[in-house]
Amino acid sequence: SACAAPQGWAHAFLDHASPAVGSSLPTPPNAVTIWYTQDLEPAFSAMTVTNAAGARVDLGNVRVVPGGPNQLQVGLKPLPPGTYTVSWHVVSVDTHPTQGSFTFDVGK
User: What is the pLDDT along the chain (108 residues), one digit of tens a residue?
Assistant: First the structure.
């Protein structure tokens, strides 16, 4: 049918995240997980978490979650109160790259 949406134009966009985009948390999370609208290509998907000074506070162990091919996760060091920026760059299984960032607050 001419009305069918072309499957070749899909990108992996952020669907939701934990901690939530723009959220304020009373206690620091031990990981950041992002759910995307498409399955990811693990070899080309990355995420970093930085503090207000720009120093990385993630553990560098970014992975696509087993059993969750549309989820990207990274562990976090113990976070003091502050604002943190999550930056991500992913490639969906159909090879389209997307990127973005968001912040969350701890103990504010």
Answer: 444 444 455 789 999 999 999 999 999 999 999 999 999 999 999 999 999 999 999 999 999 999 999 999 999 999 999 999 999 999 999 889 999 999 999 996
Residue 42: phi and psi, rounded to 5, are -55, -35
The DSSP 8-state label assigned to residue 11 in this structure reads -
Which helix (H) or strand (E) segment is 73 a member of?
A: strand 71-75
In angstroms, the CA 10 to CA 94 distance is: 7
Backbone angles phi, psi at 8, to 5 degrees: -80, 0
Distance from C-alpha of 74 to C-alpha of 39, rounded to nearest angstrom: 17
Q: Are 91 and 44 in contact (CB under 8 A)?
A: yes
Dihedral, 72, 21, 76, 40 alpha carbons, nearest 10: 10
